Amino acid sequence: MTGETRLVLLDVPHLQHAGRRLDLPNNVPGHLLAYLGLAGDWVTREALAALFWADRPEPDAQHNLRVNLHRMKKQLEAWGLDDRLQVEQRRVRLAVPCDVQALRQAAADGDHARVQALHQRPLLSGMSLPGFPALQEWLGGERAALAGLLECCGPAADAASAAAPSLRAPARLAAPPLAGRDEALAALAAAGPGLVLVQGPPGIGKTRLLAEAWPHAVWLHCRADRHQQPLAALLEYLEDMQESLADRPGWALLAPALAPGGVQPPRLMAAAMSLLLGLARPVVVDDLQWADPALLTLLHRLLQAGVPVRATLREREVPPPVAEWLALLDEDAAPQRITLPPLDHAALADLLRRLAGGRADRFAAWLHGRSGGHPFLALEIVRALFESGRLVNRGTGAWAAELDALASDEAALAVSARVWVLVERRLAALPAATRELLAAAAVGGDARHPALLAAISGQAPLAVGQALAQAQAASVLDGPAFAHELLRESLLKRLPEPVLQALHAGWLQHGEGRLPPHRLAAHAWAAGDEAAAVRHQRAAAALDRRRGLHAAAAEALRAALARCDHAPQRAALWVALGRTALEAQDLQAAAAAAREALASLPEPPTRLQALALQADLAIQQGRLDEAGRLAAEAALIDAADRPLRQLRARLAFEQGDFPGDIALLRELLAELRREPPGETLVQVLSNLGTAYDALAQAEQGLPFHEEALATARALGARHAEVDATLNLLWTLPDLGRHDEAITLGEHALRLGDFDGTPALMNNLAFLYWDRGRFEQAEPLYRRLTAAEDPTVRCFAWAKLVALAARRSDAPACGEAVQAALDTLAQTEMYRAHAVVMVAVLNHGNAAQRQQVKAWLRPGQALDPSLQAQLDSALAIP
Question: What are the CA-CA distances from residue 418 to residues 349, 388, 424, 588, 747 (Å)?
Answer without folding.
Answer: 21, 16, 10, 55, 62
